[in-house]
Every structure is written in C-alpha cells, then in structure tokens.
Amino acid sequence: MFPEVEAVAPAVTAVFTTVLTEGPISRVALARRLDLSSAAVTKAARPLIEMGYLEELAATERTGPGAGRPASPLAIRADREFFVGVKITGDELIGVVCDLRAEVRTTAHRRLAVPQVDHVLIELGELVDELLDGPGDYRARTRRLGLAVSGDVDRSTGLVRYSPFLHWHDLPLQERVEKITGLTVTVENDVKALTTAEHWFGEGVGAESFALVTVGAGIGCGLVVNGRLVSGSHGVAGEIGHIGIDVNGPACHCGGRGCVEAIAGADAIVRQAQAAAGRPELRFDDAVALARAGDGPVGAVFARAGDAIGSGIAAVANLVGPSRIVVSGEGLAAYDLFEPHIRAGFQRQAFGAAADCPLSIRPLPFEEWARGAATVSIQALVAA
Amino acid sequence: MFPEVEAVAPAVTAVFTTVLTEGPISRVALARRLDLSSAAVTKAARPLIEMGYLEELAATERTGPGAGRPASPLAIRADREFFVGVKITGDELIGVVCDLRAEVRTTAHRRLAVPQVDHVLIELGELVDELLDGPGDYRARTRRLGLAVSGDVDRSTGLVRYSPFLHWHDLPLQERVEKITGLTVTVENDVKALTTAEHWFGEGVGAESFALVTVGAGIGCGLVVNGRLVSGSHGVAGEIGHIGIDVNGPACHCGGRGCVEAIAGADAIVRQAQAAAGRPELRFDDAVALARAGDGPVGAVFARAGDAIGSGIAAVANLVGPSRIVVSGEGLAAYDLFEPHIRAGFQRQAFGAAADCPLSIRPLPFEEWARGAATVSIQALVAA
DNA sequence: GCTCAATAATTTCCTTCGTCAAGTATTGAT
DNA sequence: ATCAATACTTGACGAAGGAAATTATTGAGC
C-alpha cells in the first residue's frame, strides 16, 4: 500500500479510506462508523500519521450539552502524494495531476492526429512529463498514473481488450505505459473510472448504491451496488444506452430497436433534427441553437431524447434502486434542453418509491474524465 | 449460529456455507476455494463434524496421473436439521419442510377465506403443526421457520411494511409467528426468497451475479450482484415489470406507459386476448387454449408479451451483466407460448456479449416459493 | 515388497489483529 | 475544586489463521 510498508492491517486501510472519503473525522466517530474499538482506530491511525498521510486537526468546539474532552479529528494530508490521471479519446489526451483528495492541481492537453498506439504512447509520455515537471514540482511526490479508456478493459491486468473508438485490440497498456513513464499504472474503463470518482469524492460519497449516467456521443452508466462497482460477468454492464424503450422505434446500430442511444445519442439527435428542420447539413450545435431559438420540431427532438434518457434512468432505478443518481456528460452542454424531459420521463417510468430517488443533472467539467482516471490510481494505492 | 455455540469463527461459517452450496468437497479444495490455509480448514471443519452438521465421505478414487493420499470430502448431513418454509398468498398458504440442503421433504396447503391477519396466523399455526407432527417426525429437529410474503418486507426486523395483495401494513409478522409457533422466524419478500434459493441451491450456485425473473400475475426480478442480494435503497429493486419498453404502449396501473407488466402481465394478456378474439368473457386459460389451437390474433398477444419480457430481461443483462438468468414463475404454465418470443426479444435487445448470457426458461413447481422461504431460514442459521 | 513421489490432512508453534479494561487527557458545569 | 462526560491511549490477552514440519495414504517404478 504505502511506500515504506509491504503489508498493512485491514483496519489501517479502512481508517485511511474512511478519512479520505468522509473528511475530517474523530477516532471515536471512526470507531463507530467502522464497527471497531477505539483502541483499534488509535493503533491504525498511528502509522498513517507517522507516514504523513494523515494529520490531527486542532480540537473542534464542543457540540453537545456539556462536557468532555474535545475530539481531534483526523484529516488527509492531501499534498502528501500526487496522482496523474489521463483520459484517452480518439483525438485527444486530457491529463491532470490530482492530490490525495482528488482535487485537480494542474491540467494539460494533447491533440492526437490518429489513435495509432505508438503515436499515442509517445504523446502520453510527453504529456506526463509536462504535467509533472511544470510548475508545482509534483514529480518527487508522484508514483502513480491512472488511465481511462472507453471500451472493454481488464483493470486487474491493465489490458485493453477492445476499444472501438480507438481501434485497439488486446493491448497491454499498463505494461507499455509503465515502461515509458516509470510510474505505477492502473487502467480502467472511462465510465467506471468516473463512477468511482463520484462514489469516492463526489455526490456518491457514503452511498451504498449509486448510479452515474453519462450523456454524450453514447449514453453510458456506471453502477455501484452494495458498496461495490458492478462489472458484469461478460464484460458488459451499465449499457443503459441499449435498453429498448420503444419496440416500434428506430433500428439501432447494435441490432436492437428503439434503444435509448438510437433516440438520444448525439448522432441520432443530429439525424432527427436534420429531418425535422429539412436541412441535411445541420450539425449538433446548429440543432441546439435552433431548439433554443424556439424551433418546434427540433425542440421536440430534444424533448423526445430527454424523455428516452429519463426512461432508461428509471429502468436503472427500478432494477437496482440506487440511493442517488447523477446524470452528467459532455452531451449535457445542451443541459437546458434535456433536463425537464429527463425528469419527466424518469418520473413517469419510476415505480413507487423509486421515483423519490434524487437525480442530479449537471454538465461535466471537461477534465472530469481525467480526474476519474486519477481517482482509480488513488484507489490502487489503497488496495495495494 | 448453531445450537450449542454462541459465536463462531468466520472460517467456520465460510466452510459450512461452501460445503452446503458446493456439495461434497475436500478440505484442500475448500482451502483453495476460500483462500485459506488447509490448516484453517481442518480446524474449522472439526466442530462442524462434531456437531453433526458435516460428515466425512469415504475416500474417492484418485483422479490425476499417479499418486497421493485420496481426499475425504466433506459433505452436509442434510437430515441434521429441518426447516419449515411457508409462502403466504392472498388465498392460500403453501408449506414445506426442507432439509439442510433445501430438499423438500413434506408439503401441505391451506386455503384461506380472506387474508385477514388473525385468521391467517391461526391457519399458519395449524399448518406448521401438521407439517412437523405428520409422518417424518421433524419436530424434534426443527428450530426455524421462513416466511415468504409479497411486498415490502424488512428481513432484519421481520416487519411487513406493506403487502398490497394481502392488504397488510406494518405488521410485525416475525414476532407474531414466533409467539405462535415457538420457532425462530425469518420473513422475506417472496421474490428475494426465491432468488436466494436459486442462488444457493439451484442454477445460480457459484455465480457472482445472477438474476431470477418471475412471470405470473406480476413480473418480478431478483438480483444477485457481486455475490450479494440487491435490496434497493428505497425498498424498490428488481421491478422489471415496470420498465417501459414502449413509449406509445398502453398505460400501466403504476402510472407509466408501456411497462412490461402492462403488456405481459396476466391481466394485460387476458384483456388483449379478449379484444383479439372479440370475446369479453375469455379467461387466461381460454386464451392459452386458443393460442395453442392456432388462433392467430390471440397467439400474437402471447408473442408480444413474450417479446416484452425478453426486452425487459435484456435490460437487466445490459445493466448488471449477470452470469446467468433464470426465468420462471406460475405464468410459465403457458411456457411453450412464451419461450421463443422471450428469447427473440432478449437476443434483439441484449447488447454485445450480454447476448451470450445463458437463459434458463422453465415452469416453477408450485411449492418452489415455499422452498424459497425455507432457504431463507437456512441462511438465517448460517448468519446467526 | 520396497522406495519414492505426490497429494491430503493434521499438528505445533507463532504472528497478527483487534478487544477489553483500566488509565490518562481535557473539557464544562456545579 | 470536584465531578461528569467524552476522547484518546496503553498494555495484557485471546482468537484466528498461517508456516512448516509431520503423519497418512495412495500409485508407480523397481
């Protein structure tokens, strides 16, 4: 887990993780939260403080009725160690350096001419150097790098089995990048990485079950159930985009009919908007502009798309009953056009108490994907 | 956990559970399976053998190339203890006695005039006496009773929060029945109980993730993900029946549109068959008979229903990626009419590798629900 | 039959982890 | 100052597994 130590007691990991995700917290509170004796927490916290990962904050003011020694809450020393996160897309690398609390410290980009592996790896190496050797002097306190890639990724081996957008097959990405950068590398599917980030450091903190829906070119979904990420035994999970919500709907490239993505994916929206406006040269941004300007038929396309997404989200809520759902993604640049319809579709199809599940709908800051990648490498530190 | 003992080491529980669900298995194999040392397994198995829960089978014939001491596999002594399971429906009690391996030993029924609580409890008490004092002499070796009830049930407290079919609200069922029978009672939702049974003793054995779909008056679904039953944080989970698969479909009593249940629920099928045949007095069995006799329009109703169920199942596969799915339920009396269409709908809407998920479609023996209830009480023994 | 390699199970000793119970620390209220 | 309340620490202890040596039991090769 930590540089100096080989193995570490379960309680140490638990204490570290809980302080990390649930902020400054006293030893006694930790003991209650983790169902440990306070003695165990004291013992587990000591090495973490000695290694500089945790620190003791000044006593807080008393809360309750009267007396008692004030707690000295434990907090993460966020700048004890830094983590690089890079999201790899077909035409761009987005990189960040995060601290232990997954706060972004620096950002850098690289456009890619083609997603050809060797080319990407060279650019990636340069990007990492730029991030670590730029202002901030992160290099000395950075040992780990997380990569987020769309497609079928085996996190445990760091193998990219298949990435459709990048046209990569069975690429041992972890190994390759470790050789180039000298860092300890973790590779994860991009949606899972983002879900992890939200679960550990975002709105999903403390949730036993949680769903993240991304709206963009495709429509994806990451799931946390019983406190653990859902992986899917055939490598498929969270494919909310291919739930069929209209048996008479348009055919989808996947072979299905009326898939959410065939109605609300970016391509599908463009196609429908072109037809609705009678302008075959229309692009996504044009469609957004038209809808915002009050174009009825084009507005209806977004309405239908939002409703479809809402239906899909309701399917998630009905099936697994997450305690909250976050909807995000680059598609939500057109946030205002989607939101009411997502909510309407969700409310209509959510069954009983599932309709009470809180829905956060918000655009996604562009470096969020890279932050997700960094989060995965923070997790790797804890799990190691 | 066990009569004589208060607390029990984790390894003991693990060994017991694994032998229970994965049949006769040698200590060395157990050690590998559970990631324990063989010493630990030896130590854990001893008290279980002494208490009569496990026994050592005769050495098996060697398998491999040559030599080595033969294993003496550990097996459950299934008749060491018996468990009563009762499924409570609006008009009937179905009871069974099962052994430790959840094999049904005896069955008994009771018709109910009304689901009025006091009446049900009296009948239940009589049913249990009939089961335990009848042939087989189970009473002396039976300490536990499991109850399966539809609706919102809190297993940990044994409280029935709300059961729509029975018109029960906030009924402390566990407490009441423990008083009447003197047995240790566990109460669980019926679909979850059945899922548990299938996960421990049926086709779901060993699966990390697993789904059970029940087709009947309603359409339900139990989910096991990452080895654990999914409960849903708002008390809602597995509501496959209210996934919307047709935005232009019929309104559902839940307020949604085109829900699977509004197309493929028993009521919906009857209504559609009546319309298709132009005979408003038609009942479910008549519709089945007509479809089997080759009536085109009525056959189409079943086809549409099967397809809807298949789409819903595909949504489950796309979202959580179970390693197998079992489709069952009393609705599958019309098995032959549904099956091909369920498969077709599933194949069409399952995304990528999700389509490879094996689908078992089979009718449900009538006492299976009660067996599910008994299974839950077997689990309670292990967890206690 | 004897020896050896291979595998299964057990035993003994030991480490690790976390609890228990007692003690210290620090506060506000009386 | 004393006391109750709460937070934290300490040291002795015990339970649970692991490592390695030992015993058990087989088939193969001689």
Word description of this protein:
Chains A, B: InterPro entries: ATPase_NBD (IPR043129), ROK (IPR000600), ROK_cs (IPR049874), WH-like_DNA-bd_sf (IPR036388), WH_DNA-bd_sf (IPR036390). Chains A, B: This is ROK family protein. In chain A, the strands form 4 sheets. A 5-stranded mixed sheet of chain A has the order 5-4-3-6-10. Chain A has helices spanning 10-22, 27-34, 38-50, 117-133, 173-181, 190-201, 260-264, 266-277, 284-292, 296-320, 335-349, 368-383; strands at 54-56, 74-76, 82-88, 92-98, 104-111, 142-149, 152-154, 159-163, 168-171, 184-189, 210-215, 219-225, 228-229, 324-328, 359-361. Chain A is an alpha/beta fold and 384 residues long. Chain A is globular and about 70 Å long. The mean pLDDT of chain A is 92. Chain A has 12 helices and 15 strands. In chain A, helix 2 packs across helix 3 (38-50), helix 4 (117-133) packs across helix 5 and helix 10 (296-320) packs across helix 11. Chain A folds into 3 domains: 10-76, Arc Repressor Mutant, subunit A, CATH 1.10.10; 82-196 and 368-383, 2-Layer Sandwich (Nucleotidyltransferase, domain 5); 207-361, ATPase, nucleotide binding domain (Nucleotidyltransferase, domain 5), CATH 3.30.420. Helix content of chain A is 40%, strand content 20%. Chains A and B meet through strand 12 and helix 10 of A and strand 12 and helix 10 of B. The structure holds a DNA duplex (30 and 30 nucleotides).
Query: How would you classify the quaternary structure?
Result: homodimer
Estimate the helix proportion of chain A, in percent.
40-55%
Biggest pleated sheet of chain A: 5 strands, mixed
The CATH architecture of the largest domain in chain A can be named as 2-Layer Sandwich
Q: What is the CA-CA span between the terminal residues of chain A?
A: 4 Å
Q: Taking Cα atoms only, what radius of gyration of chain A do you get, to the nearest Å?
A: 23 Å
The CATH topology annotation of the largest domain in chain A reads as Nucleotidyltransferase, domain 5
Per the principal axes of the C-alpha atoms, what is the gross shape of chain A?
A: globular
Structural class of chain A: alpha/beta
CATH superfamily (homologous) name of the largest domain in chain A: ATPase, nucleotide binding domain
What order do the strands of the largest sheet of chain A run in, or round the barrel if closed?
A: 5-4-3-6-10
Total number of helical segments of chain A?
Answer: 12
* Overall pLDDT score of chain A: 92
The succession of helices and strands of chain A, N to C, reads HHHEEEEEHEEEEHEHEEEHHHHEHEH
Pfam families (chains A, B): ROK
Protein name (chains A, B): ROK family protein
Organism (chains A, B): Paractinoplanes globisporus
Family (chains A, B): Belongs to the ROK (NagC/XylR) family.
